[in-house]
C-alpha cells in the first residue's frame, strides 16, 4: 500500500525513530524528574515544543507542494489558520456558561456585540466530531476551490505565489471585521477544556504535545507515501516539464489540485493542534508575513526532503524563541540574514549539507572495502 | 424521430455520453487526415489550406524552410493549437478538433518536442515508467505498483533505444543524443499509433544521427512516424515519402528524388542544399 511503503525506507525509519525517541525522552523527563533537577522539563517547555511540532507539520505540508510540485505557496498560513479557527470555535462552544457574561450558548464576544443568536456557521461546533471534521474540510474546501480556478487557468510560478499571498491577506482583512462572527481582531481565546480535559493542567499540555508529535508522524508518512508513489514521480514531472507530462496523458491540473488539497488539510490539522497549546487564535495567523516565514523554514531546512522542512521549522523557531527573548529588535534582521546566507552558501539547505556529508563518509568506506577485497584475494 | 422521443428512448446511451474509447479505425488506409486547415496568428497565416494524409504504418518526412508551418501543424494535431477552419481526423472515427491534449495523447498520438524534454530529476527507468500506457488518473497513479510485465515492457524499450546500461542514472546527466532517444523511448512506452517527431537530430553527432536513423526506420511499420527535419542528409537516409511545406501549405509530395528535382522546391530552397 502506498501509505505503508515509506515504512520500509531507512530515512523514514530514522525520522520516526528520532521523533518518537524525542517524545518519549521529553515525556519521561517531565514526569519523573524533580522540579529542581537540571534535567526537568517544565510544562512551559513541553507546550513550547508542542508548538514547534505543529510548525514542523505545517512546514512538511508546504514542502510537499513547493518541493515536489514546484508550487511556491505564500499563503499556507491561511489553511493553518482556518484549521485553527475550526478548533477555536469548538473550544469556544465548550466554555458554555463559564464565560464572563455567563451566556450558555453565545460566546463572550457575541454577547458583547449584542448579538441575539448564534450565526448559522457556528452551529454544530459544540460537537467534537463535527469540529474535527471541519478542521480538515474547511482548509481542504478553500484549497479545492482556489486550486481548481488557479490550476485550470494554468496559473503557475510567481503569479500563483502572488495570488496565494493575496488570498491570505484578503482572509486576514475579512477575519478582522467583527461582523464576520469570528471575534474580530481579538480572535477566539479564554479556552477552558478540550474533550473534557482541562487545558490548563500539565497532563493535558503533555497530551497535546504527544498528539502533535503523532500528528507530525502521520502527516510525514502521508506526504512521504505520496512522494514515493508513482504519483510523487508524476508531481516531480509536472514540476520540471509540465508540457511533457501533459503530452504523456497526465492531467497536470488534477495532480496539482490533489496534492495542494492534501497539503492544505495537513496544514489545517497543524493549526488545530496549535490553537489549544497557545490558547488563542486571531487574524494575525493569516498575515502574509507568517506565510512567508514558513517558506523560509522550508528553504533553510532544505526543499524536497520533507525531513529538512521539519529540521528547518524547529531550528528557526527555537532561534526565534531565544533571540526574541535576548534582542527582540534584532530577530527579523537575523532571520533575513540567515535566509540570505543559506540561499547563497547552502542552496539545498541543512538537509543538503547532511546529504553531501553522508556521501563523503560513504566514499572512503567504499575504497576501504575494495582494498580489503584485494588484500584477501 | 422527434427530439422528445430521442431523449425518452432509454435503451441506449446518448451519443455525447458514450466515452470515446473505440479503437482507431484505419480500415480505409489513412491514420491521419488533415483537410483545408487554416490558422492565422494576428493576421499572419501560419497554415494555409493544408491538406495532408498519412497512411497507417508509414514513415513520412516533412521538410520546409523556417516558418513553413511545420511546428504549428504538430501543435494542431496534438491539440495545443485550435485551427480557425478545417478538419483533422485520426483514423476515420476520431475528430481530433473535439479533444484536448491528454485525450489525444491517450488515443495514441505521441509527440517529441524539438528541444529534448525529459524529466531530469528522475532516472531513465522512472522516465519510462511515467510514460507507460496505464491508468493516468490520480488515485490509480497513487496506488500504482511496479508489476513484472511493466518491468519487462520498460526493459524492452530500454533495449530498443540502447540505454539499458544507464537505466538507473538520472536523466539530467544524459548527453543530448541520449536524451533524444530517451524521449523517443517515452513515446514508445505509450504504445502510440502515430509518432510525431520534431527535429530529432538537431545538435547530434554523426554517429548519433546514424543510430537515430536506425531507430526511426525500425519503428515504422509497427506505428506511423512523422518526422519534421531540417537536415537533408538525414531525411535522405530515412525517407520513403517526403512532403515539402511552404508558407503553410503543401508544395510538393513524393519520393526524395522526385521532390528534390521539383522546380518549385528548388526555388523555395534556393541557395540551400536540396
UniProtKB/TrEMBL annotation, chain A:
Localization, UniProt: Cell inner membrane
Bilayer-crossing regions: 12-33, 39-58, 65-87, 127-151, 158-176, 203-223, 255-274, 294-318, 330-350
Membrane disposition: Multi-pass membrane protein
PANTHER family for this protein: HIGH-AFFINITY BRANCHED-CHAIN AMINO ACID TRANSPORT SYSTEM PERMEASE, SLR1201 PROTEIN
Record-level GO cellular component terms: plasma membrane
Pfam families assigned to the protein according to its UniProt record, in alphabetical order: BPD_transp_2 (PF02653)
Gene of this entry: urtC
NCBIfam families, A to Z: urea_trans_UrtC
Lineage of producing organism: Bacteria, Pseudomonadati, Pseudomonadota, Gammaproteobacteria, Pseudomonadales
Protein name stated in the entry: Urea ABC transporter permease subunit UrtC
From TrEMBL, chain B:
Keywords for this protein: ATP-binding, Nucleotide-binding, Transport
PROSITE patterns given in the database record: ABC_TRANSPORTER_2
Matches recorded under Pfam families: ABC_tran, BCA_ABC_TP_C
Domain ABC transporter as annotated: residue spans: 32-272
Any one cellular-component term (Gene Ontology): plasma membrane
SUPFAM superfamilies, alphabetized: P-loop containing nucleoside triphosphate hydrolases
Molecular function in Gene Ontology: ATP binding; ATP hydrolysis activity
SMART domains: AAA
NCBIfam families: urea_trans_UrtD
Protein known as: Urea ABC transporter ATP-binding protein UrtD
Organism of derivation: Marinobacter confluentis
Amino acid at each position: 500500500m502506498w501509505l505503508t511503503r515509506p515504512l520500509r525506507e531507512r530515512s523514514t525509519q530514522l525520522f520516526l525513530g528520532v521523533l518518537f525517541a524525542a517524545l518519549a525522552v521529553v515525556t519521561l523527563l517531565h514526569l519523573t524528574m524533580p522540579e529542581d533537577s537540571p534535567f526537568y522539563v517544565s510544562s512551559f517547555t513541553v507546550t513550547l515544543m508542542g508548538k514547534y511540532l505543529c510548525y514542523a507539520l505545517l512546514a512538511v505540508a508546504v514542502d510537499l507542494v513547493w518541493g515536489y510540485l514546484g508550487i511556491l505557496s505564500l499563503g499556507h498560513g491561511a489553511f493553518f489558520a482556518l484549521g485553527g479557527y475550526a478548533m477555536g470555535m469548538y473550544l469556544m462552544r465548550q466554555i458554555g456558561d463559564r464565560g464572563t457574561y455567563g451566556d450558555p450558548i453565545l460566546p463572550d464576544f457575541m454577547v458583547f456585540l449584542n448579538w441575539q443568536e448564534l450565526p448559522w456557521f457556528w452551529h454544530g461546533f459544540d460537537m467534537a466530531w463535527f469540529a474535527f471534521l471541519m478542521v480538515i474540510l474547511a482548509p481542504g474546501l478553500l484549497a479545492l476551490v482556489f486550486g481548481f480556478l488557479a490550476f485550470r487557468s494554468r496559473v503557475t510560478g510567481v503569479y500563483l505565489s502572488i495570488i496565494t499571498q493575496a488570498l491570505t491577506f484578503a482572509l486576514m482583512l475579512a477575519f478582522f471585521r467583527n461582523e464576520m462572527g469570528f471575534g474580530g481582531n481579538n480572535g477566539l481565546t479564554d479556552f477552558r477544556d478540550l474533550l473534557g480535559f482541562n487545558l490548563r493542567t500539565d497532563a493535558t499540555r503533555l497530551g497535546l504535545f504527544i498528539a502533535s508529535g503523532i500528528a507530525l508522524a502521520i502527516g510525514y508518512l502521508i506526504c512521504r507515501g505520496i512522494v514515493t508513489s508513482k504519483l510523487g514521480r508524476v508531481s516531480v514531472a509536472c514540476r520540471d516539464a509540465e508540457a511533457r507530462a501533459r503530452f504523456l496523458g497526465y492531467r497536470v491540473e488534477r495532480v496539482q489540485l490533489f496534492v495542494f488539497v492534501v497539503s492544505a488539510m495537513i496544514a489545517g490539522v497543524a493549526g488545530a493542534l496549535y490553537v489549544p497549546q497557545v490558547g488563542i487564535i486571531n487574524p494575525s495567523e493569516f498575515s502574509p508575513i507568517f506565510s512567508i516565514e514558513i517558506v523560509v523554514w522550508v528553504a533553510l531546512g532544505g526543499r524536497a526532503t520533507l525531513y529538512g522542512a521539519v529540521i528547518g521549522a524547529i531550528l528557526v523557531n527555537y532561534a526565534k524563541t531565544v533571540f526574541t527573548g535576548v534582542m527582540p529588535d534584532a530577530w527579523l534582521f537575523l532571520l533575513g540574514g540567515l535566509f540570505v546566507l543559506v540561499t547563497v552558501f547552502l542552496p539545498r539547505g541543512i538537509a543538503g549539507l547532511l546529504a553531501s556529508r553522508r556521501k563523503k563518509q560513504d566514499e572512503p568506506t567504499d575504497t576501504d572495502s575494495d582494498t580489503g577485497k584485494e588484500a584477501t584475494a | 424521430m422527434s427530439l422528445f422521443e430521442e431523449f425518452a428512448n432509454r435503451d441506449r446511451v446518448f451519443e455525447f455520453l458514450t466515452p470515446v474509447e473505440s479503437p482507431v479505425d484505419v480500415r480505409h488506409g489513412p491514420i491521419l487526415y488533415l483537410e483545408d486547415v487554416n490558422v492565422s496568428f494576428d493576421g499572419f497565416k501560419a497554415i494555409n489550406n493544408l491538406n495532408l494524409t498519412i497512411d497507417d504504418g508509414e514513415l513520412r518526412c516533412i521538410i520546409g524552410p523556417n516558418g513553413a508551418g511545420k511546428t504549428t501543424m504538430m501543435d494542431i494535431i496534438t491539440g495545443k493549437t485550435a485551427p480557425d477552419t478545417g478538419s483533422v481526423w485520426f483514423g476515420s472515427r476520431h475528430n481530433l478538433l473535439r479533444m484536448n491534449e491528454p485525450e489525444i495523447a491517450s488515443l495514441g498520438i505521441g509527440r517529441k518536442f524539438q528541444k529534448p524534454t525529459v524529466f531530469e530529476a528522475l532516472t531513465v527507468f522512472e522516465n519510462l515508467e511515467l510514460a507507460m500506457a496505464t491508468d493516468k488518473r490520480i488515485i490509480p497513479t497513487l496506488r500504482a505498483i511496479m508489476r513484472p510485465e511493466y518491468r519487462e515492457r520498460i526493459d524492452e524499450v530500454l533495449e530498443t533505444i540502447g540505454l539499458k546500461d544507464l537505466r538507473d542514472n538520472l536523466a539530467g546527466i544524459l548527453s543530448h543524443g541520449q536524451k533524444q532517444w530517451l524521449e523517443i523511448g517515452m513515446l514508445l512506452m505509450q504504445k502510440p499509433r502515430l509518432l510525431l517527431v520534431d527535429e530529432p537530430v538537431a545538435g547530434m553527432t554523426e554517429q548519433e544521427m546514424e543510430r537515430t536513423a536506425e531507430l526511426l526506420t525500425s519503428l515504422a511499420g509497427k506505428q506511423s512516424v512523422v518526422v519534421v527535419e531540417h537536415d537533408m542528409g538525414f531525411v535522405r537516409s530515412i525517407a520513403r515519402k517526403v512532403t515539402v511545406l511552404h508558407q503553410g501549405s503543401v508544395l510538393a509530395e513524393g519520393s526524395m528524388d522526385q521532390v528534390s528535382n521539383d522546380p518549385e522546391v528548388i526555388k523555395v530552397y534556393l541557395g540551400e542544399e536540396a
